[in-house]
## 1
Amino acid sequence: MITSVALAAMFSGAWLAETYREHESRAMLLPDQVITLFPDPKPLTAFALTDDRNQVFDLASLKGKWSFLFFGFTHCPDVCPTTLAVLARARDSIAKNMAGAEDIQFVFVSVDPNRDTTSKLRQYVDYFDTSFLGVTGDKAQISNLAGQLGAAYQVAFTPGMENYPVYHTTAVFLLDPRARYHAVFTPPHDAEAISRRFKVVRELEAGNAT
Amino acid sequence: MRWRHPVFVCLLLALTAIAAATEEAGVSIRDAWVREAPPGATMMAGYMVLKNNTPRSQVLVAARSSGFGTVMIHRTVVKGGLTGMEHAPKIELLPNASLLFEPGGYHLMLLNPKRALHAGDRVDIKLEFLGGLVIPVAYEVRK
């Protein structure tokens, strides 16, 4: 089942890329298992979080770069490490196969600031890729950014309980260098598929800009 | 002294051996591994492939290890677009069927490792089944 989904995703990816070459941006409207592109990307509005170097992470931090955002928490033994490992491989692939990785950033947003301090986050994301950024902040600001992306989560915080559950979307959000919500990668995630789709997205956007 | 007859003794030994082998092979486990945790992380996950070699259902009810504060059988579930974990109090392995513990699905939730675990280390966990079958499994820590 999972294999067939992955295979379908791979084939649709090749198809997307081929069609794109032939028909320009019409490819953007084709359905895809891996990525949903928005024809009219929505600009984000102000938010203020803190990164794992204790620097402000806000709207300006998104400008000039493609940003891959994933929402999660470090007390997450299964889905978060699995996804971050996939994203680390996707970044490697992007860095190897394309114009480079200088204008991309991967951001892990913890929705669990109660347990995830910025120093803990730094240790955590560095393990997967030292270029990854861990970000968190106060609850209202996390909710602000997540809300703008439609990123659902729920922290079932229980005082005195060490292992309260956290539920979160496992989608990966792609923001463009103008800080607009450009596309979303839907699970199950595959590093090569993400890398290939991103190549197409970046080329399309470069074409639009000129 | 008929019971000392060599053929009889051989038969008895053979039957005992067959019984032991059957008991051991009731459920077999392969590809048992634990994901190495990032530094500071207190929760880990264990994965494996279980195979029920018997013609009747086997029910996994618990997992225990002295290497962790708590071991629980969990499943990653998606509800209304939200992904979370839920406790699986028992899991039925159908007759002669295999069951996967894999990323994004069933996993052993391993909380508070007693020592830092690194890729290449070994972790011992006992799997307990309804009816008293206990299977010790060695998990390899992998990146």
## 2
Amino acid sequence: MESRREFLKEAATGALLLAAQGSAAFGAAADARAEAGKSRVVVARDPALHSPEGKLDEGRVIALLDRAITTYTGLNKPAEAWKRVVAMAGGPDKVIGLKTNGLGGRGISTHSALVFAIAHRLEETGVKSGNILIWDRNARDLQACGFTISTDPGRLRCYGSDVAGFEDELVSWGSARIRLAKILTRECAMVIGVPILKDHSMSGVTFAMKNMYGVVDRPQDLHTGGCNPGVADLNCIPAVRDKVRFTIGDAMSSVYDGGPIFRPERLWYPNALIVGEDRVAIDQIAWQMIEKRRTEAGMKTLEAAGRPPRYIATAADASHALGTNDPNRIQLMEI
Amino acid sequence: MKRSHVLKSVISLIAVVVLFHFPGCKKQVANPFPTSGDVAGWQKTGDTRTFAAKDLWQYIDGDAEQYVKAGVVSTVTSDYNYQSRLEAVVDVHTMGNPDGARTILENAKAGDAKPVQLGDGGVAYAQSVTFRKGVYLVRIVAYQSLADGPQALLALAHGVEAKL
């Protein structure tokens, strides 16, 4: 995407698209009632999101996002649904971080169209532009997503830990002994995780929880044992556990093998967003999506390939208690 | 032969042995990247970035371990553009020995890989080419899919191979 202005133009088209095409399914889904004791995860799809040539129709992204959020909240109107999201931060005067993932480079990073759509809806809900902070490890990762670095407090901010730095103090939980990004500890009242779904050569899958490797100074120290228990331990560190309250996962495109770097020969288009508060449940669902695609491609399961994402079960165990990986305790809503 | 000449010869011999037998001191090519125009249609569009093995995670965190395990010494990378239509990145990994390069190449192969005659062996897909030559493992990846993309990538790969 070339600019935010272009995005806003296309977003308007997308909103019209939603009104024209999505209202019936949208209304039906919004009527669904929460199931007591279950973690809700919404998988919202738009098969037309990518052209047969693999080009993303950016104008459709905001419509898909609205469907996902309204379904998740059970509220018909996007404006009302987004108020709920902003309320999780403590109100529109708080700083909300959008933690992207640009590690995979230009080919397989969080799509800027999605991030701009989220920012646009937050602004409409009353959050000042300067109180929205798009961030990741460093400028390179952010630029890989298509962002321009900006520290101007008067407009949408975008910078990485290479600008803001890390805390001097080491914090630990289990195997994780790390220094946290100051963006997380000092600037954001709440963080919305905006990871991109990928296969991972060590951990099996990288998505909601693994995205937090981008908030520490030395992520490579957490990769042993297939990132287990590193991922789960890191997510238990209070600032990570408490501030990262919501995930709007980008599964619009993905790599189902050979990740986390860009493997064009293993690229696929789920054309989906995966939304929820329970990061464990989200990763469980994301894992199943990758497994399904691998099966379709005639590939080994991640277990057979020797890299099942064991950290998901670890994150769900009694000592971590980050969420549930039990399918019977996940209310999966696919729209 | 004077004593100083003998000493010089011994030191030179030791230097050669160290250079070619210790993984950390393997020959690293001065510049494996074709300059703009060396390969028809291709422009080098980015600075060359260099990563020592211990810092490779900064570039490919999560994927770095397989290279480290295989004995990578350093990695250099640069962006390219083909006729303003196709963007690509070229990674050149210098491994400790040819077996390391072979290991990575084997890992990169999948059922639909097309073998290509490059260096000591290589594979191509629609948007990528990977090959090895001695201690070097080269991976070229395009960000777009074009009808003439595979041919263009192969031409660039030959350009890189010629500089190794």
## 3
Amino acid sequence: MTRLGKVYGPSSAQFAADAVRLAAADAGLRLAEVDGLLTSSGVTGGISVDLQRDLGLTDLRLLSHLQAYGSTAGAMIQFASLAVMSGTASVVACVFADSPLRPERGASAIYGTRHAPAGWWGLLGASGVIGANPMYALAARRHMLRYGTTSEQLGHIAVAQRAWASMNPAAQLRDPITVADHQASRWIVEPFHLLDCCLVSNGGIAVIVTTAERAAGMAQPPVHVLGWAQSHRGRYLRRDPDFGLRSGAASAGPAAMAMAGILVTDVDVAELYDCYTFTVLLTLEDYGFCAKGEGGPFVASGVLRPGGKLRLNTGGGQLSGYYMWGMTPVSEAVIQVRGQGGARQAEAHEIALVSGNGGVLDHHCTLVLSSDREAS
Amino acid sequence: MTVGPVIRDEATAEFFDGTAAGQLLLRCCPAAHYSEPAAAQCTTCGVTELHWAPAAGGAALVSWAVTDAKAAAGEQSKRTVLVIAELDEGPWWWSQLDGADADDLAVGLRLRVTFRRPSDEHEAVPVFVLAGS
């Protein structure tokens, strides 16, 4: 990964190229050994298959640009795994980068002004529904109304992740917070306070996917991809009785865990996509860490704090660490499975469960990563 | 907050002709399934033979969220209630609810569609008010 956060100057494409170079060097590879490249970009775009030329990669056997929002990173790793298993390519670099932050403007200006004031998108914005914040707030309210989930309960997620972030040198926000701080932070869109919402970051992250045989000879401990599944519900801005109550995690999670041959109780580290605190709560329920509707009491029980029963978003996630879409949970899972988490390293780190979510709970990807080739 | 400016494009021209005439136009298939106005095919049966049909205007509250516009010095901040409402024809609609206190809302609350323009040059935008108001 490149430097992340308020890093000004490089374009998204430059961050992406740097991330691929760093990932190859980390694996002990020469860049020329990469024969597959999957690219993805965030809100500012600026990344395409042209990245091949930027990196001077020749004679690639796999090249594509993917976009399934926050589920893209997991999907890239799934496609890269299929490619190396089938022999389509042997060493595939998967990269995400974005550079929305500018020194002279605030984070809210970036994600709030995407919709041109014309056509259907213009109509949604003109109606007052501008950007992702109100959409997720409407989702969270449904959960609160149906199951009695409270803002204080969501606050426990923010507080626990900040505590984890305090042990992550790469995290953007490291000062401890309390549930009272969460409650006192300004409203973004009720029921979301500021501390329910993720950061905005500049930077790039890449991973290298290859066969287990090849990985065994590389510079880092291998991280095996034991399971994957996607779920794309196709109900964005449509009538959806499950909206805010159940996401694609409810189908992709069990499918990925079945492929890996694990149960949710086998998970040592969970790195769950956290565009908002609420996304974590919903994913915990959908994955079966607690029963449907019991996410609020579950997260408020202290289970997420360092030293608690569950090791969740151990780098601070996107709420406190860095906002690299699906690459945030992927990168922290890789760090943990390798045992390189330093002060925040989980003692048991054989199995990591990773989620990606996007399109206002419409797209989901789950990965099961492991230090071993097979779940024991 | 009031509604913002929006201009029509090719895809939304007929829809905004409808809002100008006080109608929320939906897409309707020969089997009388209603889909949202942006639908290219029926969301129930998949057929592409769709015609425009006005919604009756009744709806039920599904969810709500509240934005706090930043207030200028000396002014009280203006809260806007954003809602998902289920139109009586079936489709959901995302807009704001005018003239209601966020503390008095409940799922299923009856709403009615009306229309607001930010100025005469801009298109009329569907919003909700409490039924009976």
